[in-house]
Design goal:
Elements (H helix, E strand, L loop, with lengths): L1 H38 L8 H16 L2 H12 L6 H30 L9 H6 L2 H17 L2
Length: 149
């Protein structure tokens, strides 16, 4: 059972978390393109790439909790749920997931609905800039976990 859970945990992280982290990181740059596209008349710029990134972020974000859930089941199967590194990994994962769900995804949606010119990107840019924090938290989970086996 443990090899199955470990494989599921790793695959969920790669297939769901990885794309969400990448699209979340790429979105802020394209938010300015969306803003400029609203004022472009020749049609060279398009909001479609930013909309695609938001869709990927949203859909993969729904599936991403599979990785920590399977990881928690694996920790239970190995009787390691109370170890400090497991508890820290779960806390960091919850923080990153909370930032993504409560700040980044709504910020992306608002940026797509009400674009402003790229010179005046306001608090939305700061919220969207949380992407590196989210990626850093998930990286810290993996580095922390690998260093204490």
């Amino acid at each position: 059972m443990e090899p199955f859970l470990l494989t599921g945990h790793v695959l969920a992280g790669i297939l769901f978390l990885g794309p969400m982290a990448v699209t979340t990181s790429l979105f802020p740059r394209l938010a300015a393109v969306v803003a400029d596209a609203a004022t472009e008349r020749d049609g060279e710029r398009s909001a479609a790439p930013a909309q695609l990134l938001h869709r990927i972020t949203r859909k993969h974000g729904v599936l991403t909790p599979a990785a920590p859930v399977i990881g928690l089941a694996l920790a239970g199967a190995q009787d390691r749920r109370s170890e400090v590194q497991i508890v820290a990994a779960m806390d960091l994962t919850a923080a990153a997931g909370g930032l993504a769900a409560l700040r980044t995804m709504p910020g992306q949606q608002e940026s797509l609905q009400t674009p402003v010119d790229s010179a005046r990107l306001t608090w939305r840019t700061r919220i969207l800039a949380l992407a590196p924090v989210i990626g850093g938290l998930f990286t810290l989970v993996n580095v922390r976990r690998r260093g204490h086996r």
